[in-house]
Specification:
The chain is α/β, with parallel strands linked by helices. Among the domains are: about 150 residues, Rossmann fold (3-Layer(aba) Sandwich), CATH 3.40.50.980; about 100 residues, ANL, C-terminal domain (GMP Synthetase, Chain A, domain 3). It is about 30% helix and about 25% strand. The chain starts with 11 loop residues before the first helix and ends in a 12-residue tail after the last helix. The chain binds 5'-O-[(S)-butoxy(hydroxy)phosphoryl]adenosine.
């Protein structure tokens, strides 16, 4: 089952230069002194006041760097801007139509300061939530950093989500300010943002909508004429450009919140995961350093959207904490030519490239055109978000990395904040395996009753004990935080099914719960079903992730219709539209079919696992253990 036989060994060139040369001995020694390991990492960063204790572990609550005072922006930006890195490139940005922007650490610092001052003027204080909804623009990074700098909690909403989702999250966080842009380019289309505004202004706490002009056109053609005093619409070009460019970092307690990020769970409502300044900062810093081996002469490109945790930890914070140079790109990696991504790698001389398996499978469709690119700047490749099949792994390794670059599969979650199971450049690599636990991390495969399983047995992937970077809580729903630790005493249950082989390599099989991974995105079946059920024709609905020929899951919806309705093309379209309008384009079902009834347990729970097995052509087989 596991392709254990195939191992790719690191070459001498790689081994000579990497930070982490001997994983096994570091892992072993780290387990003997977990606190010493992380305190050493924390000492590589600057603190306004040192911590009293590295860890306070009051199961299941952890506090890292207790009573330490810091600000992640001081370490990610200010300290570089006052060092030799002042004139080093921090961010390269390219828009889909081809515009370019370059920000050195010094320039980024001044921009962040201006926005910090502007936000304060708009009434944002420490602890307030600010929601950000924009495509990948330099201003999105500036916005995140400016919020963190003044102690506000940023709430970045992925640009593909609907106005309904945006409104809910604005209201739940009582956001005072929404930062957005007037338009976005994707796949050759210019999308105006005006559609979200009628939703956004329904948030009673919202005082200002701050708009960055992505294009120089009337800002919102459809801007509503509101007679209300608030929210007021203000423009980046006016309030930010003219603000003073000096601003101090707010001293934050290690456990003060840094951001909220929503992620889908099994319940209908996504969870607001809270991460804080201290532990997250140290975890993001060290994992980026040791996994991606980032150095001062690297150009690092992670293709994730900033609205996802990968965008937070491994586009923005991790690389900048290490003083790295990053590339961000606004649009479709395959537009206007399928090899746009390869063109970007050559043009910017990208050395580290981090992406998702779905992208790799679409890169594979244009293999011939790759001959036009040298890709010789690359030295390290990495993937995340969904299992990578060995064939895609090998293609990426050979055709993009030219057999020269380690290809690292990395496993983690929104809740974990940082990479927990991973490959390292100095490690022998097994195509399709997510590698081994990061130093200090205890990982195991458990049975439904909590016993540790033997090698190659499938079970629940669990993490023992706390780590810096783990979520602090689930916003306004602390019970949901406890749920992760409540299934098996002593363990954080990830929701994934996995196994571990005789050499200690982990193999992730997929989710054990009702969460679908579509192109790396995480979507709850309940969110889709709720939208489908809102159609008057639908009596009952079940959504599943169905493996497609591309290797990634697609969303398939089963419906039971009310009497008198027929599932014709029009109704299928209407049902799909409901989901797109309610959740967003990313949740669009690819297939909708009708059944006369849905398979359910005696207590009335839908047997999605059974529907999935039928889809896979396995017929009705005995259900595996209920994880
Ligand atoms: C879920 C978390 C954290 C990065 C982006 C996703 C799946 C993540 C891998 C991997 C197989 C993976 C898991 C996990 N996943 N990385 N390397 N191999 N599956 O974050 O949206 O919170 O999703 O993504 O199922 O639980 P997320």
């Amino acid at each position: 089952m596991n392709s254990n036989s195939e191992v790719y060994y690191p070459n001498k060139n790689v081994l000579e230069k990497v930070y982490l040369k001997d994983y096994d001995s570091l892992y072993k020694s780290s387990l003997n002194d977990v606190e010493g390991f992380w305190s050493q990492a924390a000492c590589e960063l600057e603190w306004f006041k040192a911590w009293d204790r590295v860890l306070e572990w009051n199961y299941p609550y952890a506090r890292w760097f207790v009573n330490g005072k810091c600000n992640i922006v001081h370490n990610a930006l200010d300290r570089h801007a006052s060092s030799w890195r002042r004139n080093k490139v921090a961010v390269y940005w390219e828009g889909e139509p081809g515009e370019k922007e370059v920000l050195t650490y010094g320039q980024l610092y001044r921009q962040v300061n201006k926005l910090s001052n502007a936000l304060k003027k708009l009434g944002v204080h420490k602890g307030d939530f600010v929601t950000i909804y924009m495509p990948i623009l330099p201003e999105l990074i500036i916005s995140m950093l400016a919020c963190a700098k003044i102690g506000a909690v940023h709430n970045v909403i992925y640009y593909g989500y609907s106005g309904r989702v945006l409104r809910e999250r604005l209201i739940e966080t009582s956001s005072k300010v929404l930062i957005t842009s007037n338009a976005a380019y994707y796949g050759g289309t210019l999308t105006p943002v005006s559609g979200i505004i009628p939703y956004a202004i329904q948030c009673p706490s919202l005082k200002y909508v701050l708009i960055k002009k992505r294009i120089d056109l009337p800002v919102f053609p459809g801007l509503p004429k509101t007679s209300k005093e608030f929210p007021k619409f203000v423009y980046w070009e006016e309030v930010v450009n003219n603000a003073p460019d000096v601003s101090e970092c707010e001293p934050m307690d290690s456990s003060d919140p840094l951001f909220i990020i929503y992620t889908s769970g099994t319940a209908g409502k996504p969870k607001g995961i809270i991460h804080s300044h201290g532990g997250y900062m140290v975890g993001a810093y060290l994992t980026t350093k040791l996994v991606f081996d980032i150095k001062d002469d690297d150009v690092y490109w992670c293709t994730a959207s900033l609205g996802w945790i990968t965008g937070h930890t491994y586009v923005v914070y991790g690389p900048l904490l290490n003083g790295g140079t990053i590339l961000i790109y606004e649009g479709d990696l395959g537009y206007p030519i399928q090899t746009r991504w390869a063109k970007l790698i050559d043009e910017y001389r990208v050395t580290i490239f981090y992406t998702i398996p779905t992208n790799i499978r679409s890169f594979m469709l244009a293999e011939r055109e790759l001959e036009n690119y040298s890709l010789d700047s690359l030295r390290l490749l990495a993937t995340v978000g969904e299992p990578i099949d060995p064939s895609a792994w090998k293609w990426f390794y050979e055709k993009v990395g030219k057999g020269r670059c380690p290809l690292l599969d990395t496993w983690w979650q929104t809740e974990t904040g940082i990479i927990l199971i991973t490959n390292f450049p100095s490690m022998p690599l097994k195509p399709g395996s997510a590698g081994k636990p990061f130093p200090t991390i205890k990982a195991a495969i458990l049975s439904p009753t909590g016993e540790i399983l033997k090698e190659n047995e499938k079970g629940m992937l669990a993490i023992g004990g706390p780590w810096p970077g783990m979520m602090d809580t689930v916003y306004q729903d602390p019970r949901k935080y406890i749920d992760y630790w409540d299934i098996v005493e002593g363990w954080y249950i990830t929701g994934d099914i996995a196994s571990v082989d005789k050499d200690g390599y982990f193999w992730i099989k997929g989710r054990s719960d009702d969460v679908i991974k579509v192109a790396g995105y995480r979507i709850g079946t309940a969110e889709i079903e709720r939208a489908v059920l809102s159609h008057p024709a639908v009596l009952d609905a079940a959504a599943i992730g169905k493996p497609s020929s591309s290797g990634s899951d697609i969303i398939k919806v089963f419906v039971v219709l009310r009497e008198g309705w027929v599932l014709d093309d029009l109704l299928i379209e209407e049902i799909k539209r409901r989901v797109i309008e309610d959740v967003g384009q990313i949740a669009a079902p690819s297939e909708v079919v009708a059944l006369t009834s849905l398979p359910k347990t005696r207590s009335g729970k839908i047997l999605r696992r059974l529907l999935r097995q039928l889809e896979l052509g396995k017929g009705v087989i005995e259900l595996e253990g209920q994880y």
